[in-house]
Design a protein that fits this description.
heterodimer, A: alpha/beta, Rossmann fold, three-stranded antiparallel beta sheet, globular, B: alpha/beta, Pyruvate-ferredoxin Oxidoreductase, domain 3, 4 domains, eight-stranded mixed beta sheet, six-stranded mixed beta sheet, 21 helices
Chain lengths: 343, 611
């Protein structure tokens, strides 16, 4: 007898969110994240047809082929997914977007486009699968690798890292989180919140590269992450239709964030004095984490006061891509009216 | 004062030697002094008098203080090519000696009497204008005074040429669009200068204007404005750009027209214009929007096109519609950033990494800028590929006469886009399958609600179902299909304009704005008994008519504004059987061609030809 598949609110089984099998290395953090994306979209009852998956180039950017096979997707150019996504989401502002990038794609070649994507607040869950190395080209350091790191192929890293979360905060992102591929539950809850956010949500996920950068002393390894993860909060995502049930609710220790689509994120503080509403404090906490050898994870910063690019653009309900021809081509009289001014 | 005495020529009006409606006037001023208003007032005055006219900005890449020239060609024959000026308005002390030296014998020099200049050439007619004195009683202050100072030459030239003051006033009203106070301030100076000239200057040169009816019903517009208007009527919905001369005014025009013409019934915009952080992002946004189903464009110039190469290659291969307006300038880098060129032809045609041949359009007039403005979007959608429109600075930034644009008769051509229902009727949707044998596949748009509609866009090898593939046969098959699609494009693009009335052995080939000098040269040579046939190519890939013209002539000369004869080389490569007959004359110095230059080149070519 077939196993009965549990269906979500739009009548889909988890299998409906699957895609081609991964061709990445066994144990790669990116595979774990792809699996969480499948799980999250299923749990959120998203219609795959309403989602687009976007990526640049790199191991991470291959992964959209491994989730949501019923969604349109585009594996674009190295570091250029932000601009492609901006155009696509302006063309159709009703689509939900999952962007998958890597530390080379975002931290090096695409740093400029990333910062401008943040600045424009394009509505997208932007995931950086951060492993500190270039996998497809066999193990060079990326710009997020730690200062002074030694790797067999890459040698000694002479330069300090670019911190994707810091860059996002400085550029004005309203949703900045860091997570760890080894902490599947946290990845899921943050992903759900990111997909429900008003604008650009940045998820910097430390996602170990088992081929080139998983030595125990590497700050991008599973072992180091497991030993040193310091979660700021215990997160819980609550869908719009669900009731909040929090045991031992204490406003001093638990905060509820209302998201744009009516869902809520509960944050039970694990670090008593951390509130994710202060940019300078977030930056300070990240710096302290680096100094103390902690992998600080959780929601670092949250502010939904700034409208998304689509909101700023003032679109109606119908996406530009679906407007009827008579709204795209003005009338003959309109042309004559313009030309009269040039006679 | 000696210089006001007649040096040459009898009085106008009684003399058959008068040169009526046939001269070129150069105005030399400093950049940023507001001379554009004065120059356009003169241009429009001639136009309003019914005289064919065209104006060219000849300017360096500076904001303020550097020399700038405006050339107005007045031609009762309707010629609009650049012509070395016989008349000069010398209002820039920095260039006055050079400017005066450039005049032909018998030329006319109207100059600002306040600048350090002593007329020395005795073969010219001089008219000094006491600018400060004329402005003494004008009640405006500071910067405005500097701006209105240029109206003194408008008044003097209007008197010398015989432009009625009322016409100048109408031109100013047009320019200021109903801002009566500005019209009054400027016209007051024109009137004063005109009155002074009437009193104080004795007209001794032969140049003058008389009303005609050759501009009745025509419009006067820049190519960039026409291109933007075409795009608006072509349904452009996403425009992404990064500022670069000489393309910026295209986006400026788009931003002017779109809010007026493109609102939905609730008053919401049916468009968006995004100023990107660079051209890499501008083309990324354009391609992203095209993939998602909106008509999209970017406008740029050579340096920007260079940065767009990677995305254009991807869009060619992933088969995404996009429109790129390249307003060509002289390169590389900043090159001659404010000078005209046809230097991007070869680069545009093959842009991208790996194999790729693109659809490239060559507008030559404001009518074609408008027409290609909407057709480029039809072609991009029909062929699912980027379309590059190669205008140039001369066309884009200067005012040209044209027929009022014809409203597009065909509805928007959206190409092979499958709806959810259409996907439902298929056994299987295959994104890159050549169902119709024309090389053009079917596509679906993100947001299509059919669960079988999705496909994954990528630059990596893919099979007919858009699945990742490194299979050699699959790759080759796809490249062959793309080649087939390129062949299909030949039937869709604008055909060449061919004039074989001469039935000559020599066939001249051109594209874009060089046509004006070539057409004028053809008339001049015809009077000397020298004839040639003419073909103006309007697109790549070219259609059968281009090969036909080439096959019917055993001596062909391709004239273009680049050193390397880029179009000639493309024709030679694609029509190797005719390669030996295809000659070229390429020239680039930043200035538009003149008929004199073309005439010399043609005569040289003919005299060197082995008969």
């Amino acid at each position: 007898m077939d196993r009965v598949q549990k269906l979500n609110l739009v009548g889909l089984a988890k299998a409906d969110y699957a895609a081609a099998p991964s061709t990445l290395c066994k144990g790669c953090g990116h595979n774990s994240i792809a699996n969480q994306i499948v799980q999250v979209c299923y749990e959120l009852s998203l219609r795959p047809q309403d989602v687009i998956k976007l990526s640049g180039i790199g191991c991470s950017s291959k992964s959209p082929a491994y989730f949501l096979g019923q969604s349109h997707g585009f594996n674009s150019l190295h570091g250029r997914m932000p601009s492609l996504g901006t155009g696509a989401l302006q063309a159709n502002h009703r689509l939900r977007a999952i962007g998958v990038s890597g530390d080379g794609d975002t931290g090096s070649i695409g740093l400029g486009q990333f910062k401008h994507l943040v600045r424009r607040n394009v509505r997208m869950a932007y995931i950086v699968e951060n492993n500190g190395v270039y996998g497809l080209t066999k193990g060079q350091f990326s710009a997020t690798a730690e200062y002074g790191q030694e790797l067999k192929y890459a040698g000694h890293n002479d330069f300090p890292p670019i911190d994707v979360a810091v860059e996002a905060i400085v550029a004005g992102a309203g949703f900045v989180a860091r997570s760890f591929a080894g902490d599947a539950k946290q990845v899921r809850e943050l992903l759900k919140a990111a997909l429900s956010y008003r604008g650009l949500a940045v998820l910097d996920i430390i996602s170990p590269c088992v081929a080139f950068n998983d030595e125990e002393d590497s700050r991008k390894s599973y072992a180091w992450g497991r030993a040193n993860e310091k979660a700021l909060q215990e997160l819980g995502f609550i869908a719009p239709q669900d009731e909040i049930v929090i045991e031992d609710y204490d406003p001093g220790t638990t905060r509820v964030v209302e998201l744009h689509d009516g869902s809520r994120l509960t944050l039970r503080k694990l670090e008593e004095d951390y509130e994710p509403n202060d940019r300078m404090r977030a930056l300070e906490r990240l710096r302290r984490g680096d100094e103390q050898g902690e992998l600080v994870t959780g929601l670092l910063y949250y502010d939904d006061s700034r409208p998304s690019l689509a909101e700023v653009s003032g679109f109606g309900d119908t996406p530009l891509s679906e407007l009827p021809d008579d709204l795209l081509r003005p009338s003959r009289a309109a042309l004559e009216g313009v030309l009269a001014g040039y006679a | 004062m000696g210089v006001q005495e007649p040096l040459t020529g009898p009085r106008v009006g009684q003399d058959p030697a008068a040169v009526v409606n046939d001269f070129s006037l150069a105005v030399a001023t400093a950049n940023g002094t507001g001379s554009q208003t004065a120059n356009l007032a003169l241009l429009r005055s001639f136009f309003k008098m019914g005289i064919p006219v065209h104006g060219k900005n000849i300017f360096p890449s500076n904001i303020q203080g550097q020399p700038t020239w405006y050339h107005i060609r007045v031609s009762r024959h309707g010629y609009v090519a650049r012509r070395e000026p016989e008349m000069l308005v010398a209002f820039n002390a920095a260039t006055v000696h050079e400017d005066v030296a450039g005049l032909p014998p018998g030329g006319v020099c109207v100059y600002n009497a306040d600048i350090a200049f002593r007329p020395e050439r005795t073969d010219l007619t001089y008219y000094p204008v006491p600018v400060k004195e004329l402005l003494a009683d004008v009640e405006v202050k500071g910067k405005v005074k500097e701006y209105v100072a240029n109206m003194t030459y408008v008044g003097v030239v209007a008197h010398l040429l015989g432009v009625p003051l009322e016409v100048v006033r109408q031109s100013l009203e047009h320019h200021f669009g109903g801002r009566a106070k500005l019209v009054d301030v400027n016209f007051d100076v024109v009137r004063r200068a005109h009155a002074w000239a009437e009193q104080s200057l004795q007209k001794v040169d032969p140049y003058r204007v008389e009303p005609m009816d050759a501009t009745q019903g025509l419009i006067l517009m820049t190519g960039n404005e026409a291109a933007a208007l075409g795009a608006v009527f072509g349904g452009v919905s996403v425009a992404a750009w990064y500022p670069i001369t000489p393309s910026t005014s295209l986006i400026d025009a788009l931003r002017e027209y779109l809010p007026k013409l493109r609102k939905d019934p609730e008053g919401r915009p049916t468009y968006t214009v995004i100023q990107a952080e660079d051209e890499l992002a501008a083309i990324g946004m354009t391609v992203g929007a095209g993939w998602a189903g909106a008509r999209s464009l970017t406008a740029t110039s050579g340096p920007g096109v260079s940065l767009m190469a990677e995305f254009l290659g991807l869009a060619y291969f992933a088969e995404v519609p996009a429109v790129v307006w390249d307003i060509q300038r002289v390169g590389p880098s900043t090159g001659l950033p404010t000078r005209t060129s046809q230097g991007d032809v070869a680069f545009a045609y093959g842009i991208g990494h790996g194999d790729g041949k693109h659809v490239v359009l060559f507008p030559s007039s404001i009518e074609e800028c408008f027409e290609f403005g909407y057709k480029a979007h039809d072609l991009a959608d029909q062929l699912q590929t980027p379309v590059l429109v190669l205008s140039d600075l001369d066309l884009g930034m200067n005012n040209w006469m044209g027929e009022p644009f014809a409203y597009p008769e065909e509805p928007l051509q959206r190409g092979k886009v499958l709806s959810a229902e259409e996907v439902e009727r298929l056994e299987r949707f295959s994104r890159y399958a050549d169902v119709d044998g024309d090389g053009i596949p079917y596509r679906t748009l993100p947001g299509n609600q059919n669960t079988r509609a999705a496909w994954f866009g990528r630059g990596t090898g893919h099979d007919e179902h858009a699945r990742y593939s490194e299979d050699s046969d699959t790759w080759w098959r796809n490249m062959q299909r793309l080649a087939r699609k390129h062949d299909t494009a030949r039937q869709y693009v604008p055909t060449a304009v061919i004039d074989e009335t001469a039935g000559a052995r020599l066939g001249v080939i051109c594209y874009g704005t060089t046509r004006y000098a070539i057409e004028e040269a053809r008339d001049r040579l015809a009077r000397e008994g020298v004839a040639f046939d003419l073909m103006r190519v309007r697109a790549l890939p070219f259609g059968a008519e281009v090969e036909g013209f080439i096959a019917r002539h055993d001596d062909l000369l391709v004239i273009e504004m680049n050193r390397d004869n880029q179009l000639r080389d493309i024709l030679r490569a694609e029509l190797p059987q005719h390669a030996a007959n295809l000659h070229g004359v390429g020239y680039i110095d930043g200035m538009p061609l003149t008929a004199e230059w073309v005439e010399r080149q043609l005569l040289a070519h003919l005299s060197g030809r082995a008969d």
